[in-house]
Structure formats: C-alpha cells, structure tokens
Design goal:
By secondary structure, the protein is α+β, with helices and mostly antiparallel strands. The chain is built from one helix and three strands. The longest helix has 10 residues.
Length: about 60
Amino acid sequence: MACTSGDPRITHELLAGIQPGDRLRVTGTLVQPPAPVERARLTVDALEVLDTALIPAIGIPG
C-alpha cells in the first residue's frame, strides 16, 4: 500500500525508526483506488509505536 505523510517527523520515523515486528498505531485517511488494479493510498496523520520488536533487526546474515 502506498503511504504518504505531510509531517517530516512521521516520514523519518517510518523510514529510520521502526523495524519489522514493531506494533504500530497509524491513523490517517485511506483513499480507495479508482480502478481495482490500482493500489489504495494511505495519508498518515499520526504514528504511535505501541511496542517494539523483541530482537532488533540490525542485520540478517545471508
């Protein structure tokens, strides 16, 4: 799902502060696509980290 925000703090947190496994509460506006083959878009107005993942996902050996 495409996700945008007008608040640079939310954008920074989404790109750098959260990791897989974190529990989040995201509020905003969900816009359904005009055609079924297109993606819905979410405009994020608020982001709250409810709980962090138990094991940090720093690097996964391959």
